[in-house]
Amino acid sequence: MNIYPIQSSFTSGILSPRFWSRSDLPQYRTGLKDSDNMIVTRHGPMESRNGTQFFESLGDNYARPFPFQLIPNSVTGEAFSAIATEDGRLIVSGASGTLFQEDLTNTSFNLGLGGWASVFTSGSSSVSWSSGSALLTPESIAPNGDLAGVSQQVTVDAGTENEDRTISFVSSMVSGFTSSDMTISIGTTLGGNDIFEQTFETDTGQTTYNPNGSLTFFVTFSCVNNDVIGYLPPGYSTPYGTRALSSVTSSLTTSGAVEFTHPWDDNDIRTIQTEMAPNEFSMYFLCQDKAPQKLNYDLDTNTWSFGAVVFTGESPLWVTGNYPTALTFFQGRSWWAGVQSSPQTFWASKSNDESTLANELEDLTIGTEANDGLEFSLSKSGRIRWMEGGGNLVIGTNAGEFLVNGSQGLITPDDIFVAQQSAEGGEAVNSIQVGSMIMFISGDGRKLLATRYQEDQNQWRADEISFTAENLTQGKKIISIAYARNPEAIIWCLLDDGSLIGCTYDPATGVMGWHKHSIANVLGISVSERSGFSVLSLTVQRIINGATVTYLEELGTDYMDSYTSIETSSVNVSIPHLAGKEVVVKINDAQHPNITLDSNGDGSLNYFDSKAVIGLEMPISITTLEPDYGSQAGTSMGFAKRNNKISARVYQSAVPLINGRREKVRYPETPMGFRQPDLTGDVTVNNLGYNDGSITITQSLPYKLTITGLFSKMAQNTI
User: What CATH number is given for 107-254 in this structure?
Assistant: First the structure.
C-alpha cells in the first residue's frame, strides 16, 4: 500500500532514542533522529548554521572567551571578548576581531577640550567652557540660525594614515526646550568636510572615518539653531539649544591586541565564573584559588585596566584557596558566595545610588543601617554554586534553589529572609537569564534546568529543558552555557569533550528543539550583542600540520568553518592558519574546486577575480524519524518502505542531496564561473529503494540550506 508521509516542522529537534517509538507524542511529528550543523528555527524550518570566521591564533594554549558587553546605547556600544589563555595572557578582542588602540600623535585630543578653538561664531552665537565641556550656543534670532562650534587640528602617525579610526563624544542640552543637532565635520582644511560629515540627534555619538591618506586634518563639532526664528521663551536669557560637548576621544581600529597578565592557571580558567557590573564597564572574574579580578574600561580615556579587586571590609575568610566563586548584582549591591570554608554563606556590599555605584560595589563593610553591607547563611545544608539577580535574587546550591527577599521587597541587614523553592541542585557554572527564567546546569552536569515562577503554586519551580535530547549529554557534562537572543533564541551548551550543542527555546511558540554541531575541539564559548544581533565567539582547538593550535573564531556570515576573506589579483594565495588542509574556495561567491594548501599555507587557484572566501568544509545533515502512519490493522513501524518519491521544500537554498542523490545543479542559463541561483521551491528525487522510511538530507556545498518541509510517496511492505 502507498503512504504519503509529511513533515512540515522540525521544532522538536533531535529526539533521544528513548523517543524513537513514541509516535503517540506530538514531538515525534516534529522531531529528528539526528542532525549536524543545522539549527532549529522558531518558524519551524531547519537551517544551516553560519560558519566560523577565523580572527587570530592563540598559540597552543588552552583558552576561554568571556563576553564583555558595553551598554548598547552608550557612546561606544561595543562588544568585546576577554580571552584568558593558559600562558597567562588576558586578551581583549573587539567586535569582529578588532581592537581599539590610540594612534594620535597630538595626545591633547584625548585629554579634554581645553585646546580646541572656537569657530563659526557670529552675532550672539558663542562658545564657552564649563567643567571641561565646551558650551555651543548658536544664535536663536538670526535667519536659519548661526553656527557655534569648536575645532582641533589632528595629526596621525604616517604608518596609519589610511586606517579606520573612531571618534566618540557626549553632548547634552544646557538650556532651551528643544535639542539642536550636533554635527561632526572632518576635513583637510578648517571647516572642510571633504573627509567626513555626520549629524547626530542623540546625546551620545560615535563615528568611524578614514583620513584617506591625510596625516593632518581638522575635526570640527558644531550646532545650529533651527527652531522657531526670533522666539525666546519667557524667563530665558540664553538662546535656544545650547549644547555641552564633552568626553571626546579618538581611537584606531586595528588587529593588534590589548593584553594583560593574569594570575590563573589552566584549572582556574576552566572554573572561572564572570559577571558584568551594572554600569556595564567592568567585568569581575572569580575562582576559588585566586583573589577576584576586574577588567575595566574607562570611557573618558578609552583605556583598559586589569587587576585584583581592591575591597573594603571583605570577610577575613577570603584568602588564597578560599575566595568567592559566584557573584551577581541586585538592588544596587554586589552579592558574593561560594567560599569553600563557608559554603552556605553569602555577602552583600553596601547599597548605593548611581553616583557612587563603582565604589560601593566593592565596599562590603557590615553594619546595621539599611544601606550597610550584610552577611547571611542558608539554614539548609548545601554549597552555593551560582546566583542570579534580575527581578528576584535566586541562589542555587548543589542541593536546591532559594529565593532571597525582604518583607517589603527591599533586602537590608535587618530585613532578609530565604525560602527554598526547589530541590534540583546545580553545578558551579554561570547561570543565564532567559526572559523571566533562570537557566542552570544540574549537579551531575548532564541536564539543562530552568527555574521560573509558577503563579498557581506561588513559588519558583525548576524544570528540565534537556529531557527530550538526553542522549546528547550521555557520558558528558555541560561546562558552559550562553544565550543568543537574535535572530533565533538559542541556548548554546559546551560539553566537556569539546562538542557543541544548542537548544532553540521559545516558550511563547512552544519551540524546544535541540541540535548538535561538529566544529572541532571547542574550548570556550561566549555570546555578545552587536548591532541588534547575537554573535557566538569560540576558542577552537584544531590540528594544523600535525600540531595542536588554538584559534579565536566566531559565527560569521559564510558557510564554511575557520574561513577568511581575501582580496588579491593573484591566483597564488596564502592562508597560514589552514596550512596543510584541503580547503573550500569561493570566488565572488561562485564555488571554485577545492585546493590543498602546503605546509606554509600557500596554494594556487585555477583563476581569481577580486575576492575569495577560503575555509574548511562544514558538513550539513538531518535525518528524520521513521514515519508511522497506522491504520485499523496496526502500525507502519518496523516494515520496509520503498521511497518512490521524496520532495524537500527549500527556501533560498542551494540544492541539497536527498538520501545521497541530488537533482541537477546547473542549468544552461547560468554561465560558468557564476553561482547557481538560490532555489525556493521543491527538490525531488525518485525511485530511491527500500529503507525504514527515514529521509537524510545532506549538503556539502558552501551555501545556506533552509528546509521548510519534507514530503514523500512510499510503498510499504505488509509482510
Answer: 2.60.120.260
What is the reported pLDDT for 262?
Answer: 95
Q: Residue 547's pLDDT band (boundaries 50, 70, 90)?
A: very high
**Mind listing the pLDDT tens digit for each residue in 339-379?**
999 999 999 999 876 555 456 899 999 999 999 999 999 98
Highest mean pLDDT among 73-82, 187-196, 594-603, 682-691: 594-603
- For residue 231, what pLDDT is reported? 46
Domain segments of the chain: what residues?
2-49+620-716, 52-98+257-554, 107-254, 560-616
Nearest to residue 91, comparing CAs of 478, 495, 537, 533? Answer: 537
Q: Decide if pLDDT at 298 tops 50.
A: yes
How far apart are the C-alpha atoms of 149 and 138, rounded to whole Å? 9
Backbone angles phi, psi at 539, to 5 degrees: -100, 125
Dihedral-angle region of residue 428 (phi above 0 means left; psi in -120 to 50 means alpha; beta otherwise): beta
List the one residue out of 189, 190, 181 whose CA is nearest residue 150.
190
Distance CA(670)–CA(573), nearest Å, equals: 27
Q: What is the CATH number of domain 52-98+257-554?
A: 2.130.10.10
Give the Cα separation of 50 and 152 in Å (integer).
44
Count of C-beta atoms within a 10 Å radius of residue 678: 14
pLDDT value for 436: 85
Assess whether pLDDT exceeds 50 at residue 471.
yes
The CA distances from residue 54 to 237, 537, 670, 703, in Å, are 58, 10, 31, 18
CA angle 238, 240, 242 (to 5 degrees): 75
DSSP-derived 3-state class of residue 45: coil
DSSP-based helix, strand, coil % in the chain, nearest 5: 5, 50, 45
- At residue 238, the pLDDT reads 47
Same fold, 2-49+620-716 and 107-254: yes
